[in-house]
């Protein structure tokens, strides 16, 4: 397959990123590696930030391909574990890409798909009646904990990394956001509220108006908290 000039520039930038980190991504170095003139880069990407966005998207394409390949099982909590492990493995094996993809305050479009995958898994846990906290908070806890572990390990010399933190943090956050079994008695009202909200979001039906659904969602969130 013949690569476009844009593709050549993105791949050249990706290789420089892997070899030398973000500091290696000067527009001059990328243009030289791709065999094009600097004005071509600016015409295609606007500026360096535009190029970085394209490189981050390129990294997300690889990451998301692995996410989709995991598929789904009947156990959403096990799916959460597998997704966590893949996320950590990607971050540790390609730290320069990970820092570009997740280490900045701006949220690129490509990242939104990855966030949506995590939310879907957590939503399935909620539907099963096994979530202790609202879906959005649970997804944020999982992501923040996973990212914290990765950034902490990346910042440590390889020989001093405690890889046991990966599993310990994973199981701690899972224990924090899930119950051992599906809500089976009337005392577990928060999990029931979370499960009901997840079910209504998946299939809202037409029994309630949009305004009524919004009000019910607010009430269920309040009960869940």
UniProtKB/TrEMBL annotation:
Alphabetically, the GO molecular function entries are: DNA-binding transcription factor activity; transcription cis-regulatory region binding
PROSITE patterns from the UniProt entry: HTH_TETR_2
Please give the Gene3D superfamilies that the UniProt record associates with this protein. Tetracycline Repressor, domain 2 (1.10.357.10)
Query: Domain of life of the organism in this record?
Result: Bacteria
| Chain residues forming the annotated DNA-binding region | 26-45
What keywords are annotated for this sequence in UniProt?
A: DNA-binding, Transcription, Transcription regulation
List, for all copies, the residue spans of the domain called HTH tetR-type. Answer: 3-63
Descriptive protein name:
TetR family transcriptional regulator
Q: Which organism is it from?
A: Amycolatopsis regifaucium
């Amino acid at each position: 397959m013949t690569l476009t000039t844009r593709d050549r520039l993105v791949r050249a930038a990706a290789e420089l990123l892997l070899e030398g980190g973000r500091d290696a991504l000067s527009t001059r170095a990328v243009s030289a590696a791709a065999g094009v003139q600097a004005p071509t880069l600016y015409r295609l990407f606007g500026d360096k930030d535009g190029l970085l966005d394209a490189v981050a998207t390129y990294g997300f394409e690889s990451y998301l391909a692995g996410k989709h390949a995991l598929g789904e099982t009947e156990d959403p909590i096990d799916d959460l574990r597998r997704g966590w492990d893949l996320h950590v493995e990607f971050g540790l094996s390609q730290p320069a890409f990970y820092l570009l993809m997740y280490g900045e305050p701006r949220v690129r479009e490509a990242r939104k798909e990855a966030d949506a995958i995590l939310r879907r898994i957590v939503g399935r846990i909620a539907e099963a009646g096994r979530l202790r906290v609202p879906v959005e908070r649970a997804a944020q806890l999982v992501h923040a904990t996973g990212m914290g572990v990765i950034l902490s390990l990346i910042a440590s010399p390889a020989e001093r990394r405690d890889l046991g933190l990966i599993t310990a943090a994973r199981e701690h956050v899972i224990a924090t956001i899930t119950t051992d079994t599906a809500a089976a008695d009337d005392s577990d009202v928060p999990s029931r509220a979370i499960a009901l909200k997840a079910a209504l979001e998946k299939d809202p039906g037409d029994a309630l108006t949009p305004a009524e659904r919004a009000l019910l969602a607010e009430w269920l969130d309040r009960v869940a908290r």
